[in-house]
Amino acid sequence: MDLTKFHPSRRAMIRSLLLASSFAPAFLAVLARADSHGGTPIISGVQELSGDVRLNGRPAQVGQRVHPGDVCSTGADGSCVIVIGEHVYLIREESEVEFYAEDFEEAEGSISGQIRLAAGAMLSVFGKTETNIVTPMATIGIRGTACYVDIQTDRTYACVCYGKADLGSAVDGQLLETVTTKYHDSPRYIYPPDAPQRITHAPVINHSDVELRMLEALVNRVPPFDKTQGMRPYG
Prior knowledge:
The protein is mainly beta.
């Protein structure tokens, strides 16, 4: 993504959003360099990182590309933002994510496949795609949307922030529910097959509209709820 595509007021908006994020100082430095050099592009790959972040076991670097089969892991103080095509991922601390090792497909404007979230949590925004996020307990079938996924001790938390997704079991393959949301309408807890209930309603936790705006801005988009009048942001 080339920052010259941003109108000056748009760059100011991104700065204001970044001030509320844990990556504020580093991202502001990136944008400052872009302004001073007449529009330095932000390319796909690791956009920013904080603390212990590793790709395939080695310390990650800003600007490093992420390829199918790569594994990103973060320590107790680690987090990072990664761009792959038109998709952006904010990976929380103590997480492990394997990107597109299986069923990977790349077409014009579209990257699809399977992402394995083995531990931790991840907030993602997607362009056109048919991607499955797979945890030890759940599958979230993304069809162009945004979602937050958090692996907890005895369940997986999934909030489809906007868009459509199929929520299922990674253990027996059963489709549990298809949700279509506009604004964090249907967060769910997904449980293993032997639980009394396989899927239940959940609150909205641990992710914010500021983060969604930041991630969408990195691929020159805005969340659809910003186009809706009268919507009160949370977080």
